[in-house]
What we know:
The chain is of the alpha+beta class. It is built from 2 helices and 6 strands, in the order ββββββαα. It is rod-shaped. About 15% of the residues are buried.
Amino acid sequence: MALIARVYRSDPDERRGAPRYPVLVDATLRASDEGMPLDVLIYDLSMTGFRMETSEALDPESMIWIGIAGTRVNAAVVSRRGPNGYGCEFVTPITFYQLTEALNPPSTVVSLERPHRPEGMPARISWNRVVLGAIAGAAFILCIVSLWLA
């Protein structure tokens, strides 16, 4: 039984499973379950993979775990090693929501808490209270003076 197939040549960018977006995203890489986390820089990101730079030597076809803000920790396979880092493919593609979160990380909001005031230390008084107190005091004095002169 013969199988007939056609081979097409195409640009490598056209063969990708999903469009890649140029980004500069910090991420955390683990090369094994017990491996120490490594900081990496991701340059391209798509729903199916990414390109990253790291100082760690990785073998093609090795399994890695990558943590990108907004995408959780995802398993990936090193697809290729090139002059500009490593090309990796997610074992399970990330969702559109995860891709959007990674491309547009939320700004970090730090909640400010009032510092604890030690016993015996006077509370800070706002200028609004000082002004209102001065106005109330002046009104009281005007009332007394007007009653005395009447």
